[in-house]
């Protein structure tokens, strides 16, 4: 709890700095406050989003903190805090929660390290001032000693009194000892400061890499805090400490050349590492289309005044991205509006270059290998400039590369291009060679990616469950085994091979479900009214003992972006059969909503397991139309199931709905 107590002490004087760490999207400050002792007693530093094997360990910690929060909520007399604690305890995901706590605690630890470094630098400066005073005193005493010797001898030809000379000599020896001791301590403290600066800067670079990695994985829906202000403050502190230490070393002289070289290298690293792609370009870019991106320089306030800093952007291919330190060779694309001026915003204290109307006029592609398509080829934007920093003698050439992008020429390529980006964002290693990705990943990693992408795109907190996971695994593997946990998914299975008996890939089908749900079914899904991902075998299993009229909503297995109604109906001989109404697509639901269609169909009465449909879906029904002022009779569309298409020989029938108006005309 010591860390939180220290933070609470600076909260009145630095509220913005503390509050930037604790937001509703990260860890609410109420949780940090009330559960401080428990949080600081756990081990968080080993958690990482890519380590899916830590999910169970993270779940244990999440369960524990939920119990702590619920207990605290019951004991809290403040009604607002009590309600907030209860709400927070219901909105956390295990591994994401553990990583968020890890990051917040590590940021504060890094801040403490920088604060400690600042104190050590102040100590160095204070020792140097004391040394200067002692040296002046020593010089004075030496002059007194010399004057006393020469003056007495000139007056009477005799040596000066021994007592006075001895006193001066003794004092001089004491001062020399103090100066030498201080000099040794001063040099050692300087070395310690450089070591500490190196350590702090390593932490900063590590945190900046983690920020970029989280920004990359945000494309698949993982949480991402885009606030760069804490990193900017940290970066500015490192630059300031470097400058003060360089001044101290220059005052000493040539005996510190090794330390001066270390500081020069640290200075170069922090200056060159501070260029960040704040707002990434679209990761799928269509030629001849406008797009924008923003680059931020964390040391913007330290840029030397005078000549404007102009950033240039260019497209690089995979081979060029691997050779950024050397000659890039010919341009692989013609990029329009590819320059922007670095401008400082005094309100936000940020220094950014915004490319507002860039466009790729044409692109030169590399030779493709085997079955590789143009939508699998990855490029990136490279931003570069020359910059002068106040207090530094020479300009620095700095550059930064964007996340990978796929360049397409037609909208029909968008779906496959997005699949390439998702595979890259989800499964690439942080320090990979550009733009290497694995050919296969575990099913668990794939499922977590599908869940994150689905929930983030649909903007829902209703996650996919174990039944959904099993169905999706059966679909992508074309296999009906019970345990998929040790199976590996290939890129080909994800978006190269068409599904058996279909004309589309797994990703094309899944992306169609996302689009349909996002545009027309978000609230239905979020309230748990859509069963969604379920195969026909499981469907028969759960509906077989249900009364006639029981139905559920599932995503179409055979059509991209469709939702169907499966329900139990009676057969002619008094038995039961399960029928599936032809899937409703995005176009169908634009004409008439799902709620109204459910209301229209009299054969469906109970949402599985036994919820009367008019109670569950009533709020989704449209209000009855009233006559217009012109006296016209209102006309409305209704859904009618055409039973003439029922196949009496099959166990599950397929019904075709059609929309008719109120007077019965098609």
TrEMBL record:
A GO CC term attached to the entry: nucleus
Any single Pfam family the record assigns to this protein: SH2
Keywords: Activator, Coiled coil, Cytoplasm, DNA-binding, Nucleus, Phosphoprotein, SH2 domain, Transcription, Transcription regulation
Compartment(s): Cytoplasm; Nucleus
Molecular function via GO: DNA-binding transcription activator activity, RNA polymerase II-specific; RNA polymerase II transcription regulatory region sequence-specific DNA binding
Annotated coiled-coil segments of the chain: 117-185
Gene Ontology BP term (one): cell surface receptor signaling pathway
SMART domains the record matches: STAT_int
InterPro entries according to UniProt: p53-like_TF_DNA-bd_sf, SH2, SH2_dom_sf, STAT, STAT_linker, STAT_N_sf, STAT_TF_alpha, STAT_TF_CC
Keyword Transcription appears in the UniProt entry: yes
Residues covered by the SH2 domain: 525-625
Keyword field contains Secreted: no
Domain of life: Eukaryota
PANTHER family assigned to the protein according to its UniProt record, in alphabetical order: SIGNAL TRANSDUCER AND ACTIVATOR OF TRANSCRIPTION (PTHR11801)
Family of the protein in this entry: Belongs to the transcription factor STAT family.
Name under which the protein is recorded: Signal transducer and activator of transcription
Organism this protein belongs to: Gouania willdenowi (Blunt-snouted clingfish)
Lineage, highest ranks first: Eukaryota, Metazoa, Chordata, Craniata, Vertebrata
Gene label: stat6
């Amino acid at each position: 709890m010591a860390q939180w107590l220290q933070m609470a002490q600076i909260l009145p004087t630095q509220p913005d700095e503390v509050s930037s760490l604790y937001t509703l999207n990260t860890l609410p400050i109420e949780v940090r406050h009330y559960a401080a002792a428990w949080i600081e007693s756990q081990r968080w530093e080993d958690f990482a989003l890519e380590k899916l094997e830590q999910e169970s360990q993270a779940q244990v910690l999440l369960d524990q903190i939920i119990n702590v929060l619920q207990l605290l909520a019951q004991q809290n007399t403040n009604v607002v805090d009590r309600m907030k604690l209860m709400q927070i305890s219901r909105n956390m995901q295990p591994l994401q929660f553990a990583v968020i706590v890890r990051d917040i605690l590590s940021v504060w630890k890094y801040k403490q390290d920088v604060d400690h470094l600042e104190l050590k630098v102040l100590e160095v400066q204070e020792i140097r001032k004391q040394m200067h005073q002692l040296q002046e005193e020593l010089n004075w005493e030496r002059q007194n000693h010399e004057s006393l010797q020469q003056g007495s001898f000139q007056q009477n030809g005799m040596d000066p009194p021994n007592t006075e000379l001895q006193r001066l000599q003794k004092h001089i020896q004491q001062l020399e000892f103090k100066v030498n001791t201080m000099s040794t301590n001063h040099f050692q403290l300087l070395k310690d400061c450089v070591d500490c600066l190196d350590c702090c800067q390593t932490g900063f670079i590590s945190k900046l890499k983690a920020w970029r990695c989280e920004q990359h994985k945000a494309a698949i829906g993982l949480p991402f805090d885009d606030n760069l202000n804490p990193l900017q403050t940290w970066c500015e502190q490192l630059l300031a400490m470097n400058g003060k230490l360089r001044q101290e070393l220059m005052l000493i002289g040539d005996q510190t050349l090794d330390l001066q070289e270390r500081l020069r290298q640290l200075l170069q690293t922090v200056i060159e590492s501070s260029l960040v792609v704040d707002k990434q370009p679209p990761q799928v870019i269509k030629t001849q289309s406008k797009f924008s991106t923003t680059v931020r320089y964390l040391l913007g306030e330290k840029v030397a005044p005078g000549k404007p800093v102009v950033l240039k952007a260019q497209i690089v291919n995979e081979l060029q991205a691997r050779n950024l330190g050397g000659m890039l060779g010919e341009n692989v694309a013609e990029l329009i509006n590819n320059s922007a001026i670095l401008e400082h915003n005094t309100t936000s204290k940020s220094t950014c270059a915004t490319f507002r109307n860039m466009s790729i006029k044409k692109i030169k592609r590399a030779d493709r290998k085997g079955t590789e398509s143009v939508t699998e080829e990855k490029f990136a934007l490279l931003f570069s400039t020359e910059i002068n920093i106040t207090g530094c003698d020479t300009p620095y050439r700095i550059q930064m590369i964007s996340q990978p992008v796929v360049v397409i020429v037609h909208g029909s390529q968008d779906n496959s291009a997005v699949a390439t980006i998702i595979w890259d964002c989800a499964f690439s290693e942080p320090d990979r060679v550009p733009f290497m990705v694995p050919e296969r990943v575990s099913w668990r990693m794939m499922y977590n990616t599908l869940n994150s992408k689905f929930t983030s795109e649909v903007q829902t907190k209703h996650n996919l469950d174990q039944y959904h996971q099993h169905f999706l695994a059966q679909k992508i593997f074309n296999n009906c085994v019970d345990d998929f946990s040790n199976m590996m998914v290939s890129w080909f299975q994800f978006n190269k091979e068409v599904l058996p008996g279909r004309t589309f890939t797994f990703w094309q089908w899944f992306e169609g479900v996302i689009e349909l749900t996002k545009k027309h079914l978000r609230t239905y899904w979020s309230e748990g009214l859509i069963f969604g991902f379920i195969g026909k075998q499981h469907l028969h299993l759960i509906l077989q003992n249900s009364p006639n009229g029981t139905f559920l909503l599932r995503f179409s297995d055979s059509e991209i972006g469709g939702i169907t109604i499966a329900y139990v109906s009676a057969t002619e001989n008094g038995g039961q059969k399960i029928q599936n109404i032809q899937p409703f697509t995005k176009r169908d639901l634009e004409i008439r909503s799902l709620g109204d269609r459910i209301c229209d169909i009299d054969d469906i009465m109970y949402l599985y397991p036994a919820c009367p449909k008019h109670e569950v879906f009533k709020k989704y029904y449209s209000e009855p139309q009233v006559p217009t002022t012109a006296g016209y009779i209102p006309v409305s569309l209704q859904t009618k199931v055409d039973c003439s298409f029922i196949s009496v020989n099959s166990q599950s029938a397929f019904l075709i709905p059609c929309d008719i108006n109120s007077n019965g005309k098609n």
